[in-house]
Design goal:
Two copies of one chain form a homodimer. Chain A is α+β, with helices and mostly antiparallel strands. Helix content of chain A is 28%, strand content 22%. In chain A, strand 29 and strand 30 form a beta hairpin. The first copy, chain A, is globular and about 80 Å long.
Chain lengths: 768, 768
Amino acid sequence: MKKLSIGFVLLFLLLFLHLNLSAQKSENYIQHVNPLIGTQKMGHTYPGATVPFGSVQLSPDTDQQPHNIAGKYNKDAYKYCAGYQYDDRTIVGFSHTHFSGTGHSDLGDFLIMPTVGDLQLEPGAKDNPKSGFRSAFSHQNETAEPNYYKVLLEDDKILAEMTTTTRVGFHQYTFPQSDNSHIILDLMHGIYNYDDKNVWTFVRVENDRTIVGYRQTNGWARTRTVYFAMEFSKPFTSYGFKNYENQAYRGFWRKFDQTKNFPEAAGKQIRAYFDFATAKDEKIQVKFALSPVSTEGAMNNLKTETPDWDFEKVKRAGQNEWNKELGKIAVTADTKGDLINFYTALYHTFLSPTVYMDADGKYKGLDQNVHQANGFTNYTTFSLWDTYRALHPFFNIVQPRRNREMIRSMTAHYDQSVHKMLPVWSHYANENWCMIGYHSVSVIADAIVKGNLTGVEAQKALDASVQTARTKYYDGLEYYMKMGYVPEDKNSSSVSKTLEYAYDDWTIAQMAKKLKRTDVYDEFIKRSENWKNVYDASIGFMRPKMSDGKFRVKFDALQTHDQGFIEGNAWNYSLYVPHNPDEMIRMMGGKQKFAAHLDELFTMHLPDEFFADTEDITREGIIGNYVHGNEPSHHVAYLYNWADAPHKTQEKVRMILKNQYRPTPDGLGGNDDCGQMSAWFLFSTLGFYPVAPGSDQYSLGSPAIKTAVLKLENGKTMTIEATNQSDKNVYVERVSLNGKPLNRHYITHAEIMNGGKLTFMMSDKPKV
Amino acid sequence: MKKLSIGFVLLFLLLFLHLNLSAQKSENYIQHVNPLIGTQKMGHTYPGATVPFGSVQLSPDTDQQPHNIAGKYNKDAYKYCAGYQYDDRTIVGFSHTHFSGTGHSDLGDFLIMPTVGDLQLEPGAKDNPKSGFRSAFSHQNETAEPNYYKVLLEDDKILAEMTTTTRVGFHQYTFPQSDNSHIILDLMHGIYNYDDKNVWTFVRVENDRTIVGYRQTNGWARTRTVYFAMEFSKPFTSYGFKNYENQAYRGFWRKFDQTKNFPEAAGKQIRAYFDFATAKDEKIQVKFALSPVSTEGAMNNLKTETPDWDFEKVKRAGQNEWNKELGKIAVTADTKGDLINFYTALYHTFLSPTVYMDADGKYKGLDQNVHQANGFTNYTTFSLWDTYRALHPFFNIVQPRRNREMIRSMTAHYDQSVHKMLPVWSHYANENWCMIGYHSVSVIADAIVKGNLTGVEAQKALDASVQTARTKYYDGLEYYMKMGYVPEDKNSSSVSKTLEYAYDDWTIAQMAKKLKRTDVYDEFIKRSENWKNVYDASIGFMRPKMSDGKFRVKFDALQTHDQGFIEGNAWNYSLYVPHNPDEMIRMMGGKQKFAAHLDELFTMHLPDEFFADTEDITREGIIGNYVHGNEPSHHVAYLYNWADAPHKTQEKVRMILKNQYRPTPDGLGGNDDCGQMSAWFLFSTLGFYPVAPGSDQYSLGSPAIKTAVLKLENGKTMTIEATNQSDKNVYVERVSLNGKPLNRHYITHAEIMNGGKLTFMMSDKPKV
């Protein structure tokens, strides 16, 4: 009888496993994702575990902060924006927050590291991992999947595995036999340009398995606090803190030995350790929940999202979630590499913005007060100078609900802003003001024009956009409003600012038009023409103009530094009139001349002296003088469409796709920038691109897959088919939509969202 | 018709004013309060405005922090525990939080200072106030009343007035004519032993009248944040910030001029200023609300408590509140000085603990989470080593409801404590562990034994007391529990700790007895005898014992430093067995010998070399070798009652009352210690004293007033009458209660609370 029961159980188990495997098999998109892509050189992606748009990014860090000198500039920090560099041979530990692809550093909160043997509380040297708690590792013993990361820590032969839920990092460490095993919690560790960014940390050991606390930092985000709750799968036998700060008189705290088994610590520079005895191959698990609000919130997140001690279940749930999200586009392609490129790009676009609220809907606002998100999920990490271009437009197609909620998060930011401004570059209840323009308005306009934001909400978002665009003290804006351009002698990067304000203003005009707000339309459509004020027809480039109305004499179109531009030279940036290419081309001498100009851009050689100050990219991130690794040129290849040379758009796009995106750790030529580079890849691979977000048109390029099926949130399906597709057949012979010829170089948003079939007939010959 | 209306209105107004004045006149207790008492030398009281138990203590500071050297020890800090020293001739400004009478420094948040002329953002030198924003003042032009403080700032001829509600400081500055008037908000200023206690400050200028922000400090309270909301009665014309910190790279914040009219600032060292044009005698008012929770909470407190711009109304409301509280005891006395002493002492006992929660009941807990106070008012600032002796017992008579709520605040602290300990010395959601013992248990026992805490709540409070008293790692407690005493070689101040633990344990036994918890009673009544273990019969003093069971050889009964005691020498501290004087007297050689020993204490001379290390008191704070300015001897004068010499209790008490409490700024010989010194005065002046809180008995002394009517919360009235009272008639001939002779040296709590009349017949001859 007993045996029979066991038999049945086994049978059911096998059946369950089989069903599960086949279910996974039928839609296994995660197999095509390689989170290591972009972790070498300039990609600044992280290889660790996270769920789509998750608050926790649990990932290995291969460099450490701080370097023990308060406030010291860390020249390597840029390399370690995501904490991990593929070329490194040691891991310091696993921290819980990471940006994906940024060109500036922050985060890296709460580093966890397991060790065995004599306790070492210093990280030790990179070239001598045994000198501290860091460990050697090798890529042979490393696995990175969506929501799963595994590595063998070679120094102590500890297998480290991690997975996550939205708000909880779930660690699993397989120890060797030892009476002297430890798990270190490093509250000093962080990622930032300067050491000593900690403002305060606070820890409580609630019982022999539970720790709570917070970390407050002054980094890229000026006033930022992250709260945590941590739980071990088994009780520690003892624990301790080390406070590295040279502390003044601590009064009656002297009555305690605060270093050992004392349950409370606070200060700027603290590391904690927890001791265990472990049997051979014993697994110790750690749940580590984050909250933007409080330790109470973190504890509630932990209990809500990870009620059990089932690592596999958490991993599986997160991977299923990834499969669901990645499955929104089902592609077929020629090579495994193409699939990996595609799904890894899709993966990278679904990493940020990240959810920024507790399971109960509470979050910290820009005003540092706690707010309740009513009716939406609050997001943070808005790298808008990058992501307004393609990422948010991409979301309007494949993540429209989330994009709406991101805009709600942006207008909540506006409501909480003392400046009454929409976000510029915001993260963790902070505005860091990074880069230029006010591109929130583009994201809002794109959603409104495409019908993804309507009614009162759209009206309010327009009001916020207008108010933002009238903030006089913002970055030369008063001059721009008065004079029609930003004068270079009053404000640096003046040309870039003028061009981007003009585009942003056009997007405000577009939403005003859609919302029938004529006064706003009139004001901003006028402002949108300001780009003309910085065009110097005598040289055919945009050029810095002084407050006396004259162009600055000093000028070098190849130089990036101090030429009135930022992250781009005049060759690249002068083409930044996405909202009116026709007029720009006319002013630049007409279509033919313009096409030749573009040809030159793509083929000329940028001497090394000029490359040196091109930021954020590798040499491979440049094609001729076209800089794909930075964003201002992302629309440029599509401009041939306006110059009667669509075949050149087609060949350039395919060239960029091939050169700039490779399925290898060093496959990204520049920072992925919170998914913008990947979104460019995805649009272009699908065969179209939003040259001017805020318009409902996508400019057609050359699709790089065989078929792609977009499963839309509205229940419809849009199939893209590239007939006769191959590496050589990069030219589009003809295009049809639902069987009817499409005799234009664009497709509209409504056409995509209505579903159906878009067919590209490919050829190896340009259709001139 | 119109004229008639105005006439009527005027008539009503006059009638109203008349009624109001006469109402005030009939019970004008505040006229007897002089908040300047104790502001000179060691009293450490503050002269500024506050309401009873108010969260805001808005008071002038005459010294400044920081002294511009990070972490530097400030040797003068002790003098400035309350921010103000009467001998000083300049005022730096007015800050919003002050302890009353502490022997340790903290607080001093948010200094406001009005100035005229060229902006000076540095405080300047004490001896040259014109060198900075500080100003000369003189006591001739200074008025201090309950909830009202006024001073002429002589440098710029600005009249400064202030009043408060519980959570709002209300400033009124009368300016001269000037186009260049300023109000400075100094976020660097603070009160503490070390400079640079700021961890972070954050400010937002919400509009041209409203500012919010917070200040986070690492001072006596290790992790403390106070939030504020500030509103001006008229818009400022411009404003600015100065950040004194040497800041690292601030990224894209560079795009702003953050010094002038930029609405946001954050950092460690910030001062702000607000500019006005003022007409001659123009008043600018400032409302400044505090919150323990958030700027949102502060703003709500501001709106709730001060909806209008009516300074006089706020002042009047607060003074009415004071009259109501002070009116709980109506006394008659021979001299105006006696009345001032009495009502100023009563005033000082009603200053702390202070309300620590928002108007909506939210407060920050010890766990740094936000809690909702359900069914009670949450209090903070528990100076328990001082206040368990007389202040909380005094509250059990005159403020029983508040005392219950204070205990609820203490048990909430316990619930939030990671140590599961009741408060030792706590303020602002922090435990600072100051001094020794765990005297919360005495406060709780006193309330339970006296019937002021009952039911489930009492049982829970007992559990918390027991748990607290079993915290092994607390201050030698494990040794005490194992060995029956704290060994001096293991833990300093071992005798004081042993004696106080023993007393505290006795109080736990008393509440256990009352609550019928026999097991707890048995455990703790046994522990309460541990005082015997440190009594050295061979010398007649308590004496430090080593872990080998032998008394330490090195011993000096006059020395305070390093003799096994704290804030007291062996002469004083050896008498600390408040819960069993009979047995102590027996062990010390019997009643006669003991009385002679006490006589010697009061009459011997303490050489200067020993006085030097007696903390916290002036030379006048000592009578012979009896140290009244520190607390451990507060029960000592009453011990004659146990030695068959009650007349000596009577004469000593009257002597102490006369010598140690004078109606002058230097009238307090030692720190008022959050009201403990004043509570001693009040009890003793009324003729009885709680020698052992946790007992329901008060030991009789010699009343120093003619009559006192206690208006009890239960609606009853207790009248104390001293017949034949005079300065010379300090001896009590006989006592009667409700007309019946009281032939014992104590009165019970129930007898007081039942109301009636306690009559002392006074005489100039001791009844021996």
